Each structure stands twice: as structure tokens, then as C-alpha cells.
Amino acid sequence: MNSFASRAVHAGQRPHEHNGAVSVPIYQVSTFERPVVLDGGWDYSRIANPTRSAVEECLADLEGGARATATGSGMAATTTALLSLCRAGDHVVIPATTYGGTWDLFAEVLAGWRLAFTAVDMQDLDAVAGAVQPATTLVWAETPTNPLLTITDIGAVAAVAHEAGALLAVDATFGSPYLQQPLALGADVVVHSTTKYLSGHSDVTGGVVVSADAATGARVARTCGIIGTAAAPFDSWLVLRGIKTLPVRMRQVCGSAMRIAEWLQEHPAVRRVHYPGLSCHPDYDLAKRQMSDFGGVVSFEVDGDLQAASDVCASLRLVTLAVSLGSVESLVQHPAKMTHCTLTGEAAMPDSLLRLSVGLEDTAELIADLDQALAGLMA
Ligand SMILES: *Cc1c(COP(=O)(O)O)cnc(C)c1O
User: Fold this and answer.
1) For residue range 108-124, what is the model confidence (pLDDT) as tens digits?
2) What stretches of 81-231 adopt beta strand conformation (E)?
3) What is the pTM of this model?
4) Which one of 75, 191, 238 would you pick to mutate in the ligand 1 pocket, going by the greatest count of ligand atoms within 8 A of its CB?
5) Angle at CA of residue 288, ends 287 and 293, nearest 5°
């Protein structure tokens, strides 16, 4: 069972441990009868639960890590990782274009606990090296980024972090383990919002922290058990179920996203397309080297202002206007008005930028929907 596809279906799942059930049952239970005190078995679901353990084992396997901890959201995973790996007085280097919730966690919560951070352009290795201080214990990267899909060279940033005696953690949500495996490239910890591609059906929020080595993995699991950020049994089961179809879903959305990106590039009402699979994308070569395909998110700037972009969103019929990504249904959102509305000045997203998360609908019908919505701009 060496292939990703086979492991996605079976890793961490042993029917003989569950009365032969081929789908790991949902152990909807908070506590477990103990034959003897402290025998090392199941004990209390905040600490460990059989359904959650199955999804954790599966994700550790798919990422090539020693241990995974499944949490109740992507932000719970990020919080658990940071509280495990950092102490007051430490310093962390983060990307200037990090996920908004991650930025808020550093700026509004952890800064108050004396965790210092410096935001840099992670594509500029000199800037990363220059931001590292004696107190730096962690470099936090994110690739591909949201919403412009820039790619960070994981191996190169890992080398800079390790040279400074720091660990590298990567939020790899946009690629999923099917497209890239950061631990194999040198990262120490991988974080995902499993809300996105891993569960894939817009029906659960979840997250995971995967550690390359057992000691770090044990520390993260222990922190999770103490602070109570673990994923619930039913949510764990939904993520485990979603993972089984991750390879087929990713193949479909990558193919569809590529066709849509190429089509958008030729459209007179589109000014610019951001998709790492296009050879004109500045990170095309790096993406090709680091990822097995280019993902299901395509961002594009329409030829118009904030209102024009807003009108395109409102005109789409098959594509749903909503935040989030990585699901079976195609979603569009308007970063300047939605996910990135608090960014100002140089950090602000272009008014005319739209982010499309390509789903499993028919590609030709998605293109037809985009065509009728963009036609409004040319009237
Ligand atoms: C959605 C997302 C998160 C946060 O995940 P939640 O499940 O919403 O808490 C973190 N990082 C990235 C890149 C995301 O897209």
C-alpha cells in the first residue's frame, strides 16, 4: 500500500478493530469504562478518541510525519501548534501575506502573551534571514498563499530556519497533502485547515497539525489535550471520509482550474489571472518543482473597479458567492470586500480581484457561467 490513493482510503483504518466495520464508526462518546486504572487504553475523548485517532493516523501517513493531532478548526490547529512550539519571549517570522486569521492570532492574541513576530516577504530569502533574531524559535510559512497564489520555496526557507536554530511550520491548506508534502522538503510541522480540500464538502470545520518527529508530535498532542482544541468524533469522521476521495477530487479540480485559468487569460474583460500553473505566473517553475499539480484556486482581476468585480460576483449563477474553498461546489469571493477587507495601503488587495475555488461541476458549464457574468462588463 505505497500509493497515495490507496493510503488515502485505508491508512489508519483497520476494520478488525471495529467489529469488521469498513467505515471507522463514529465513537460519539465522552468517556470510556476502564478495566483498571491507568492501563493506557481509551480514557476521555478530549485526550483521545478512536474516530479521531483514525483520521490522525491517516493524515500522519499522507504527510509522511510521525504524528498528527486533529483539531476543531484550522485556527485551532494553528493555535495548538504555536502554543506547543513557542514560549513568551520567543520570536516568530511570519509571511506578510499570511491567512487573515493567523495574522489576527499573532497581532491581537499572542502579542499580548509576549510572543514577538516579524512579517516578511517569504519569497525573499534574504528578508527571511534578515528577520531572524537570537530569540527566533519558529518560521511560519504558507504556500500557496491566499489569494494571489504565490509559492514559497519550502526547502530554501527550511534551510534558513534551521541555520538559525529555528523550526519551520508550513500552513499547506491550499495544496493539500495530495499536491505537496512539506515535511519531505524540510519542514518540521505542517498545518492544514481540513475545512477545505481534506474534508472537501463544506460540511465541517477542522484542522490538523502534523509533526515530522515523534517528540514534537507528542508535545503538540499533549498541548491539544490540555487546552481542549481537539476535533469532535463526528467531525473527525467527516474529514476521514473526505480524505478517501481527495485524490480524485484534486485531479478533477486541478484539470478544471487549469482550463478555466487559460480561458480567463484570453478573456477581454479580464486584466490579469493569478494561477501558478500558467507559465506567465512568476512562481511557475517553483510550483512545478515543489507541487505535483497547481491546485483548484484561480484568482483573477476583472477589467473594472470594485463595483464591476462585485457585479460579476452577483451575476454568477452556478458559482456560489461565499468565503472558504476546496469544496465540491465552486465558490467565488471578493477579497477587497470580504476576506481581505481589513488590509489597507500597500497590503490591500486589488479592488477588481476575485478568488474562484473551482469545484466538481462540469468545466464547460463553469466557463459558460463565468462568460455570462463577465459579459455584463462589456455591455
Ligand atoms: C481557512 C484557512 C485557515 C483557517 O482554517 P479554519 O478551518 O477556518 O479555522 C488557515 N489557513 C488557511 C490557508 C486557510 O485557508
Assistant:
1) 999 999 999 999 999 99
2) 91-95, 116-120, 136-142, 167-171, 189-193, 207-211
3) 0.97
4) 75
5) 90
